[in-house]
Design a protein that fits this description.
By secondary structure, this protein is an all-alpha fold. The protein has one domain. Helix 1 runs parallel beside helix 5 and helix 2 packs across helix 5.
Amino acid sequence: MYQEDAEVLFPARVIAVLRDLRGEQWQVLVSYVITRAEDDPDLLAFSLLMIRLSGCLSCHADSYRAMRGCTQCARHSVLRFKGTDDDLIRLWQSARDEVLRWLSSGEPPLME
């Protein structure tokens, strides 16, 4: 079965759907990120954060996650995250540092 909402990696179009899933700090971050251009380091860092949180690198076409689609998978990943909003913000800042380092030096972020 083909899922129209499934993509290879976390799609930026899903970011806005994640806004109201956590507290105020998370909402502020998401509200900020959705205003950025697709090639902006802050949006790229958010995408990297979500790729890691959702496990996009291990997702494949016939997996349960892919069958549910990226939107539901991302929502589930944010909701099940055990840490605080501060923890998520720190993870985003770390991803942002990696993206900025990659853009300036060509050193790619670590994909675990």
